[in-house]
């Protein structure tokens, strides 16, 4: 790294002073934790850098709850067509090529999605095209984490070049102070074509008379470079517009396209394509504006964005950030917004590290879904045209990592933010109607990306309804999802995008309905065994939803389909050590796909048979029977979390055991409750919490997957976990905090008390629900839908008598 310029220290000192002056979250020392004192300013415990290493793929930049704008760094490791991580920022990559306006939290496809319009404060003259700087050797800058500050809603960074940036955002807009050395050329680069995945087209227009820079980028391509999806997603589906205004005149302007530089120009256009490396290097367009900083080294920029139009971007900016608003003003408002959101769970007690891990997890879990509608309610539809939110819907949301989120994040959203959940449900239904009735399993902005497998939309909306969410067209949505699950679609016979991005959302449905399993040799899916298990979970959820709607005939049909997992459970499949009974893929003729190994991914999606065999949360009793009874199943589960010598194996890396970095098995620690050994859930969850999660950049086990892994931690810390999609039943574990209050916006709060909670009291000795003793390791739907209290008596050793009676096991 080059020597740090004296101006750098000055810039960062000024930025830090602004943070302190604003008394923003993270800028002061959190108060000491007391068991009887609930947190009132949770932003004091949020560290946005948690998960920015170790493959967590979080980003540290400025964003508000469910915000459209997420202003965060795009780093580089020496290739302008790639970054250090899936979402543009990796803690170990300390070279920057811009501060991009949009990001997606924790997605796993590298280089992920979005990262639109990197804005780069550059010290020096522009003498060549930045697009031609393919190694990021010239138009990028090093930085040190010592010069980086990240708090909810605000991000500050000093660069080794002597420039610095201080950013704060509203929902759809932002304001920045850029500082430059007074004795060197000062420029801002707008790299309009350089989204993380590339772009089809981009444009920039510099208006010197009005001190404005406007433009857009046509892009998309989520997972477009994924090897197992081919080129299926190398396509555009959204255009992001921006409008930036400045507090001072431009001293110079210029644009570029590919390798051609045009000093003095005010217009340019051109995309990069969606390839990577040499196939894309040197392509793209952008522009720059220069400033005279000899007497004033600070440049203030206000910027708004929209997925609908240039006018929308300008209106969003005008309505959300006042012309005279400073970074400090916007950051204070952002901090208050995050405090309001995070106060949906107020915990008491616990040390500072526990609180930091908890509230940062809650912060990451409540980042999404993300707004894509403008202030006037207009949004881009999945049909490529602009739509208006209808009466009763406050906003259109997107970014649905369904295969991941339906297992934990969706339940947390429904529990804490039911109105947002309802608008999100309506948003997904709106998209489906604009998409010929097809509900895509991974929606990015207004694009159907087809990523992953199964039918997570059915599981998601059924869960919302079961947990009391009603502000969406639930009758219409149910009918649409039931139709998708029962009426074959031509896309279901396509192999486009397979295996990772198969176009069909219920692939080869006719065969599935006939055989009662997805046949590996004709399924047109990622893996027949995984598809069968995913569809069984979704169908069971639809059955529960139908039952709640009074549609009993449909309920019975879907409930029966929820048991079709049995058709891919092979009692004779073994691991070579005497253990038999595993989920295994089958061919159309009924034969089992061979060779078989529990550690193989053949027939599965991002997981092995050893993991997927446990993915039957809707029928744990049935799974236990198939394994020879509850005791035999519990013994099998013991081996899933432990090595043969009895030591723990919960950190991943073993194909035969628990993997905390990916979703198919994250519910497995809670299965002991239904197997009559709930103390093992308590000790297993505590082991995972203590060894896999924590503070610092490596504090997440793997991809946060739009808040899923963070939501898992939030539930674990509270001593609750959703039993199965389509249900409001909560399984009980041992809380980390002596007290917690969950705010229910339109009803009675949920109060959790565990006075003895600490590092050593990790077992439940007794429980009272609404003041009455309970010998059940679960709560029925009333706790979630009506509120109430759970009081835990914790101990430092297991109680093998509590909640173990067959009649009291989770149903």
Automatic annotation (TrEMBL):
Q: Where in the sequence is the signal peptide annotated? A: 1-35
Molecular function terms from GO: hydrolase activity, acting on glycosyl bonds
Q: Which InterPro entries match?
A: 6-hairpin_glycosidase_sf, GH-type_carb-bd, GH92_a_mannosidase_put, GH92_N, Glyco_hydro_92, PNGase, TAT_signal
Q: Which UniProt keywords apply?
A: Glycosidase, Hydrolase, Signal
- Ranges of residues in domain Glycosyl hydrolase family: 312-795
Q: Name one Pfam family in it.
A: Glyco_hydro_92N
Does Hydrolase count among this protein's keywords?
A: yes
Domain named Glycosyl hydrolase family 92 N-terminal: which ranges? 45-306
- Family matches, as PROSITE patterns: TAT
Tell me which EC number(s) this protein carries: 3.2.1.-
NCBIfam families found in the cross-reference section: aman2_put
Name the record gives this protein = GH92 family glycosyl hydrolase
Q: What is the lineage of its organism?
A: Bacteria, Bacillati, Actinomycetota, Actinomycetes, Kitasatosporales
């Amino acid at each position: 790294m080059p020597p740090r310029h004296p101006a750098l220290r000055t810039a960062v000192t000024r930025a830090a002073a602004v943070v302190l002056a604003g008394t923003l979250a993270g800028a002061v020392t959190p108060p000491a934790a007391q068991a009887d004192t609930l947190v009132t300013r949770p932003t004091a415990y949020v560290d946005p850098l948690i998960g920015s290493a170790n493959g967590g793929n979080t980003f540290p930049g400025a964003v508000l709850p469910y915000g459209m704008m997420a202003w965060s760094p795009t780093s580089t490791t020496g290739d302008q067509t790639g970054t250090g991580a899936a979402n543009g920022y990796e803690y170990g990559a300390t070279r920057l090529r811009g501060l991009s306006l949009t990001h997606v939290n924790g997605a796993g496809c590298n280089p992920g999605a979005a990262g639109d319009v990197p804005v780069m404060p550059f010290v020096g003259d522009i003498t060549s095209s930045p697009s031609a700087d393919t190694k990021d050797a010239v138009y990028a800058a090093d930085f040190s984490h010592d010069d980086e500050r990240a708090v909810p809603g605000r991000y500050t960074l000093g660069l080794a070049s002597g420039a610095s940036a201080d950013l704060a955002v509203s929902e759809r807009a932002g304001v920045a102070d850029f500082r430059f050395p007074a004795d060197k050329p000062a420029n801002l680069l707008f790299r309009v074509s350089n989204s993380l995945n590339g772009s089809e087209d981009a444009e920039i227009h510099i208006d010197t008379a009005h001190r404005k820079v406007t433009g857009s980028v046509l892009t998309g391509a989520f997972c477009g470079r994924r090897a197992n999806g081919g080129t299926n997603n190398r396509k555009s589906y959204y255009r992001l517009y921006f409008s930036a205004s400045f507090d001072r005149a431009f001293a110079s302007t210029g644009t570029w396209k590919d390798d051609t530089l045009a000093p003095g120009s005010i217009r340019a256009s051109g995309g990069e394509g969606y390839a990577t490396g040499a196939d894309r290097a040197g392509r793209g367009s952008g522009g720059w504006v220069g400033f005279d900083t000899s007497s004033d080294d600070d440049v203030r920029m206000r910027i708004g964005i929209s997925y609908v139009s240039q006018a929308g971007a300008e209106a969003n900016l005008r309505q959300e950030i006042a012309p005279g608003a400073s970074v400090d003003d916007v950051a204070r408002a952002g901090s208050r917004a995050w405090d309001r959101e995070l106060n949906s769970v107020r915990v008491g007690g616990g040390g500072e590290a526990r609180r930091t891990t908890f509230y940062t997890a809650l912060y990451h879990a409540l980042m999404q879904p993300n707004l894509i509608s403008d202030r006037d309610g207009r949004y881009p539809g999945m049909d490529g045209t602009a739509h208006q939110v209808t009466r009763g819907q406050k906003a259109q949301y997107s970014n649905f990592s369904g295969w991941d989120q339906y297992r934990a994040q969706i339940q947390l959203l429904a529990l804490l933010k039911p109105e947002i959940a309802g608008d999100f449900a309506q948003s997904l239904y709106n998209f489906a109607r604009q998409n010929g009735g097809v509900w895509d399993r991974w929606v990015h902005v207004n694009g159907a990306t087809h990523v992953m497998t199964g039918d997570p939309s059915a599981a998601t909306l059924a869960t919302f309804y079961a947990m009391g969410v009603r502000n969406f067209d639930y009758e219409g949505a149910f009918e649409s999802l039931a139709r998708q699950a029962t009426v074959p679609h031509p896309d279901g016979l396509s192999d486009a995008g397979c295996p990772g991005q198969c176009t069909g959302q219920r692939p080869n449905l006719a065969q599935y309905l006939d055989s009662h399993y997805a046949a590996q040799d004709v399924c047109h899916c990622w893996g027949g065994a995984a598809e069968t298990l995913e569809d069984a979970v979704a169908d069971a959820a639809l059955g529960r939803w139908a039952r709640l709607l009074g549609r009993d005939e449909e309920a019975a049909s879907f409930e029966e389909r929820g048991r079709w997992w049995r058709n891919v459970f092979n009692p004779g499949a073994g691991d070579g050590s005497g253990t038999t009974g595993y989920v295994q893929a089958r061919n159309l003729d009924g034969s089992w796909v061979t060779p078989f190994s529990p550690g193989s991914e053949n027939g599965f999606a991002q997981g092995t048979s050893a993991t997927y065999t446990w993915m039957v949360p809707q029928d744990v009793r049935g799974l236990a029977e198939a394994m020879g009874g509850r005791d035999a199943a519990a013994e099998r589960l013991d081996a899933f979390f432990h090595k043969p010598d009895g030591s723990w194996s919960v950190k991943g890396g073993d194909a035969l055991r628990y993997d905390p970095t990916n979703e198919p098995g994250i519910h497995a620690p809670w299965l002991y409750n239904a197997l009559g050994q709930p103390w093992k859930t308590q000790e297993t969850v505590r082991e995972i919490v203590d060894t896999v999660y924590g503070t610092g950049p490596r504090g997440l086990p793997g991809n946060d997957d739009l808040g899923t892994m963070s939501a898992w931690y939030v539930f674990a810390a509270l001593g609750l976990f959703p039993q199965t999609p389509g249900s409001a039943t909560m399984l009980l574990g041992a809380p980390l905090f002596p007290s917690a209050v969950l705010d229910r916006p339109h009803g009675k709060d949920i109060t959790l008390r565990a006075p003895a909670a600490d590092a050593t009291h990790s077992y439940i000795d007794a429980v009272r629900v609404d003041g009455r003793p309970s010998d059940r390791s679960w709560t029925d739907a009333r706790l979630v839908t009506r509120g109430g209290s759970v009081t835990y008596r914790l101990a430092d050793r297991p109680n093998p008598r509590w909640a173990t009676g067959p009649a009291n096991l989770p149903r």
